[in-house]
Specification:
Pfam families: Radical_SAM (PF04055). The chain is an alpha/beta fold. About 35% of the residues lie in helices and about 15% in strands. The chain has one domain: pyruvate-formate lyase- activating enzyme, CATH 3.80.30. The protein is globular, with a radius of gyration of 18 Å. The chain binds iron/sulfur cluster (SF4). The site of iron/sulfur cluster has 10 residues, from loops.
Length: about 270
């Protein structure tokens, strides 16, 4: 799907960590909007999306001048105390347009010079592997989290048809691991998957995070309910997967392939 792209010149780039991200001093969004337009994305219901006439997933604002802003704001923030950064909370930092614009890469370049105490990079895109050279400079001050909601491509296509295919995400996890970048596989939101999924992940990562709509949307599942997600499960006859207790099933499956201390649940899995 093509997105409407606009260049913007924001006045600030670092936001205060709050709510679900209260464990972070700051969040960092190189873009506004998201071309992946996942059906379950709760950002659709947040002011950033509701004030916009165009549908979520069809527009992306490119934040020009981000690196210069970050350099100033990071220097100031570091002078005040510990700086932990979550990138990104309301977009994916590896938008398709990032191939050309390199806004995220420019921010990472700043953070290799003025290093935060910790940087968490959250994405669904294999493009993240382009920046392995910069992650390696941050050593253990960075963790790259690749979302893999399911191992079933038919399920991925049903719930999030414009996000990158699963195979590329798994391959990217492997490349990050081989390069020595701290990583985690994030199953969020938990979607229907095969019995082999935990074994597939265990070959690639030693840390997984599991989250669902009921724990992870910041409102006990109410925000997600307003998106009408249940009909997507009904269309597939998989309603049993849309339940607050389903994560237990996945947790038990994961326990066969991972030790308990490798499995993180909901908010705790995203903490610095
Ligand atoms: S990738 Fe993230 S921000 Fe983008 S639409 Fe999907 S859930 Fe929302």
């Amino acid at each position: 799907m093509r997105s409407n792209l606009l260049y913007k010149h924001p006045k600030t780039i670092l936001n205060k960590g709050s709510g679900y991200l209260a464990g972070y001093s700051h969040s960092l969004n190189p873009y506004t909007g998201c071309a992946f337009g996942c059906s379950f994305c709760y950002v659709r219901k947040m002011p950033v999306a509701t004030f916009r006439k165009e549908e979520w997933g069809t527009w992306v604002d490119i934040k020009k001048g981000s690196a210069e802003l970050l350099e100033k704001e990071l220097t100031r923030a570091k002078a005040k105390g510990k700086v932990t950064v979550f990138m990104s909370s309301s977009t994916d930092p590896y938008q398709p347009v990032e191939y050309k614009e390199e806004i995220t890469r420019s921010l990472l370049e700043v953070m290799t010079k003025i290093q935060p105490d910790f940087l968490f990079v959250q994405t669904r895109s294999p493009l993240v592997r382009r920046d392995i050279d910069l992650f390696l400079q941050l050593k253990d001050k960075v963790r790259v989290s690749m979302t893999v909601e399911t191992d079933r491509e038919d399920i991925r296509k049903h719930f999030t048809p414009h996000a990158p295919p699963i195979r590329g995400r798994l391959k990217t996890l492997q490349q990050l691991k081989e390069a020595g970048v701290p990583t985690q596989a994030t199953i969020a939101p938990l979607l229907p998957s095969s019995h082999e999924f935990p074994d597939t992940l265990a070959d690639l990562v030693n840390r997984v995070c599991l989250d669902d709509y009921f724990m992870g949307d910041g409102s006990g599942g109410r925000r997600t309910k307003t998106l009408g997600i249940s009909s997507l499960y009904e269309e597939l006859g998989l309603e049993e997967w849309y339940s607050p207790s389903t994560y237990r099933l996945m947790y038990d499956r994961l326990k066969k392939s991972f030790s308990k201390d490798q499995i993180h649940v909901s908010q705790e899995g995203f903490l610095p």
